[in-house]
Design the sequence.
């Protein structure tokens, strides 16, 4: 890969991508789904080769796990392609319209951002996902997956090129690249051709991209997510939400890591800890939790800041909703939090004062999810505040234009 | 000024600013308007001192002009403060709401970005304007005007502190700072405390801020704006729009710099040039324009890229709408363009294919203006695509939160 050439090719392809018809884009998504199904064996083989190489290189188990792209994951990507095909085309959507007193019709119309660079570790499924999101939203994509996934990604890139070419779209609209770290660093300086960088992966990767990039970055950082059990909450609801938030998918970023319990609810700590244990969750607790329940490991200051991504939970007793909010804003990662409460006023205070992308009342943190919240699907979860916060779907990959329809209006008085 | 201390103080103030009531913020805006009126003489004196120093330092005339903050400008700032007071409070606005099949109510609620740093040259009126926008939108502001405007800005900063303090708001919510270039560079590295930088001024300033900033930047670049007179357009409408776009306020960024004329409309070139000359505009033209009208100076390649901000226009004959679009996308600055046409299909093509923040059909480029387009007022005009494009009003200074209201929903099946 030559970074500048890749970026220029993407920029050139982006003009056509922006103007491509919905039918054309959907046909390419459909063909990609078909090719993925037809080439299942080749994809599995490429992934097996990547896995073998990674194991031989002594890569850590969690990386090996993320690298795995088996039958089930392929099926899930095919479903995802069909889902994105079915979503409305965001390009050209008029999302605001205001007739002005002078007769001007002031509208805002969604347009693609242009060229989007995704940098991610392992996870070949992102190569399918991100390509599909960028294609549907009329953006050109440069997809740079981890070098561990090189063979599988190269094959997926070839399938994308076919799907684009056979539908009359420019092959460079989705470029799957490998290339050295130096070439990636050079990509991050192509601000003249690339409009947005989305890094996904570990904290180190994201911070390195942010530090080196001359292009705007939307970060997808970790999730240290909380559930707070408020004074007077229904305890069976609270336990159900806590178990769902922790146990359903412990390895996702919106899984709960810390449960906060109002002091007045401390009598329920044994039941809470018992429920966690019954589901195989190891509990670490503050002093009050440990005093209330035998055998709970101590939680250190570090625990409050830790994204376990595992069947571990830390539990802390706090004075009240205000203390819970303070804990979350201090130790959390501004991702996803939930309050379980019967109090309307404390619910309103919690959603107002907690500084996180997604704040739920009486709901599981698992609902920080594109499909659950009506966005169809998501390409990621932004932990930034600018442009897009929280779930990023098709709309969040768009910019807009002010389009103003007139009939000869001018501002000044110019006589005849 | 100590950069880190300033940034930390702004961050600390931002929490209170975000939660401040509408009445409290409006009272501070009202008091600022009153104090500005009451301290008119002191403001004029401070500005006179700045002007004298700038003249003595041999500053160029256009900078002296922008530095001037006379009676009329003070009046206009007082009106602006009252206008912003009257605008709806964007904090807490629910701008999307979707009841999901499982009963969850998924909403999006506007929240402030946090801390906004404005860096601008001269123009003391920005100190009033930007402070008011940030206050109303619940953000904390750090305002760093040009050192030429130091005395006037220091006085305006003191008035802001009074207006905040007397209404129970933290004084640090609007900090007007001076400080060396080195301190500004240090400010630009305070990404832990500052959420957004908005530079306003010359290309050099904006590029320097962009290059040095570790904080996201929304650029306010120049406007090389166009009007295109399409085949078959009503010529008197076209001339009226061209004159309004060029002559009403030639020094603003949305003033037209180049008029493009369809070949089939070349017979009207003498009338067009005559109209410009009658309004005191010097015309530079392409070969075809010069062949059609005697005495037109030649336009060079450079002219097509020049923001005159003056009573000068360049005129170019182009084959058709496609050639006009190509010229605009090649030479323009993606700011504001207008087509004068009777053709619905060519109007639709123009608004779709021109890659600019504001695209008008049969309207003057002067309407790239917050009030004209129903936004109340604007803090600036973004030439970026991310977060905010074109006019930036209160809403564009906001982020949002996903707030989800449930009644005990979980995603998994957990039995009794």
Sequence:
């Amino acid at each position: 890969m030559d970074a500048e050439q890749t970026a220029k090719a993407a920029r050139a392809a982006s003009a056509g991508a922006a103007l491509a018809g919905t039918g054309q884009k959907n046909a390419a998504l459909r063909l990609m789904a078909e090719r993925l199904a037809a080439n299942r064996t080749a994809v599995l083989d490429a992934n097996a080769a990547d896995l073998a190489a990674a194991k031989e290189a002594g890569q850590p188990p969690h990386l090996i796990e993320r690298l795995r792209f088996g039958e089930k994951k392929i099926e899930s990507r095919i479903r995802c392609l069909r889902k994105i095909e079915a979503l409305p085309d965001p390009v050209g959507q008029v999302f605001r319209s205001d007739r002005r007193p002078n007769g001007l019709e002031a509208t805002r119309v969604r347009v693609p951002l242009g060229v989007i660079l995704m940098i991610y570790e392992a996870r070949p499924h992102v190569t399918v996902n991100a390509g599909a999101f960028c294609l549907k939203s009329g953006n050109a994509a440069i997809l740079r997956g981890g070098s561990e996934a090189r063979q599988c990604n190269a094959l997926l890139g070839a399938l994308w090129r076919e799907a684009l070419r056979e539908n009359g779209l420019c092959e460079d609209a989705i470029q799957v690249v490998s290339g050295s770290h130096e070439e990636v660093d050079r990509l991050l300086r192509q601000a003249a051709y690339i409009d947005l960088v989305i890094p996904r992966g570990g904290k180190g990767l994201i911070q390195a991209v942010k530090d080196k990039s001359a292009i705007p970055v939307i970060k997808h950082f970790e999730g240290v997510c909380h559930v707070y059990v408020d004074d007077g909450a229904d305890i069976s609801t609270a336990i159900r939400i806590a178990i769902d938030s922790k146990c359903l998918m412990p390895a996702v970023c919106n899984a709960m890591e810390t449960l906060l319990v109002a002091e007045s609810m401390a009598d329920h700590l044994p039941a809470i800890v018992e429920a966690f244990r019954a589901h195989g969750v190891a509990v670490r607790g503050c002093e009050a939790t440990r005093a209330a329940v035998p055998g709970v490991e101590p939680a250190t200051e570090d625990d409050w800041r830790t994204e376990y991504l595992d069947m571990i939970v830390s539990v802390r007793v706090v004075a009240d909703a205000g203390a819970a909010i303070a804990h979350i804003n201090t130790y959390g990662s501004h991702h996803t939090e939930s309050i379980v409460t019967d109090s309307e006023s404390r619910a309103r205070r919690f959603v107002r004062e907690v500084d996180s992308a997604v704040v739920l009342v009486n709901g599981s943190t698992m609902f920080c999810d594109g499909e659950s919240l009506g966005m169809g699907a998501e390409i990621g979860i932004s932990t930034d505040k600018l442009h897009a916060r929280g779930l990023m779907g098709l709309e969040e990959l768009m910019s807009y234009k002010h389009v103003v329809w007139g009939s000869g209006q001018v501002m000044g008085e110019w006589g005849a």
